[in-house]
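Re: the request from the purification team.
They wanted to know what the chain is likely to look like in 3D before they choose a buffer screen. I agreed to run a prediction and write the result into the notebook, where they can find it.
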Amino acid sequence: MSVNRWWPEGPICSGCLAKAVETYGVCDGCGVERLLPGIGPNAQRWCTDCGGGLGDFSCTRCAREGWRERAGVCGWCVLSERVSELLDDGTGRVRPELEPLFERITTMARPRSGILWLSRPEPQGILRAIARGEVALTHEGVHTLMPVRSSIYIRDLLVAAGILEPVDRFLFLFEQWWPAWLETIDNPQHQKTLRSFLTWHFLRAFRALAADHPLGFGPPQSARRHLRMAAWLLVELDERQRTLPTCTQGDLDQIFASGKRSLRDDLQPFLHWAMNTRRMPRLATPAHLGRPVALITQHQRIALIRRIYYDDQMPSLDRVLALFVLLYAQSLTRIHRLTVDDFHVDDDGQLLVRLGEPPAPIPPPFDQIVLEHIKERTNQTTATNPESLWLFPGRRAGQPLATKSLRLRMQHLGIPNLTSRSRAIRELLRQAPPAVVAGMLGYSPSRSENIAAEYGSTWQRYPGLARQPRRPPRIND
């Protein structure tokens, strides 16, 4: 343990000291809202005056209490100095267009994070280039700066600050990626074919989708894989001295026979597009071999739910994430788009979540876990998401946690994602008709009907009502 200083209770390490001088609220001793570094014998939160002997944490410049980055100077003052220098347009002041970015960074709740970030050369170079007008203050201009990961991070900050107009980030990144990738294709005829494929099969669909809702990470990533496999197929045909128009059924069969099991799914979009546009003859492709859905048992599902509920040392983020998979059979792509506005309490005090229509109830005691997480959401102390509405705020401005991060968390918990969802939806379909479950959880009605039929609970036969006779009875009957 690295002892940073001594307090009345004894030595305090640097980690505990940092947490103490970043804790604010109403003092349990004097009732004043200020810095609360002290802890009383009964877990009271005390200010420096009520705690006694804790020291003075007021800044000699701005008089604000908090972490001192330098002797007598708080982190916010040091952060303001660094940001002012980086956003200087050459006249000794912050570039006027970047004033909202300056405000967003310098008012973050945890200035140490900003100071650490700005000590790296990557953001320093990008911010200086933007401030001095070395690139256009546009999405395309910022994207030309290297490294790309840092430029994407800063571009998201510019959007969150209102300096750049909002765009679908995944569509934008895909549109920036494909021209450079296409230049790596040596054969001009292959380039022409692939350009047509990505323009009419992917770009048109992506732009239509992005007009209604965020595109997400998955579709562009799949498109990149399909494009690379299409380029591979064209090279493979060249080696066989074939082209798309001269490709035969035998060529296609040999290619699939020598490839991996996933080859059929990877090439299917390109082959269908080429056949439908008459760039190649209509040939047969291997049939899709559906694999049986692996399921955890209901006993295992209940055991996992109990573990999530009773383990109060588990981060609330992990508990809520696992509960939405185990209780509501939600996919990670759906979970990561949830916001706090999707939750509300009705007149009877029941917590509801809008996964579909009507909203689904969250029964006690799980409702308290969700409410606790909403109050303690992470990634809100920096300039990225200080006022985020995401249920799981991410580390990029305006973005939720990526599905990859959620998947890794599920793996760390030892909870299988797909098999748990598969069991959960089947158990729910045993308790209610597919149409009700589909509407409440945002599932496809037809898909829910198929799952229910496979599982043997179709809800097709309801108790029959006594039918009225077709004609009224006669007196003499």
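For the purification team: The chain has a mean pLDDT of 88.
Please add any questions underneath this entry.
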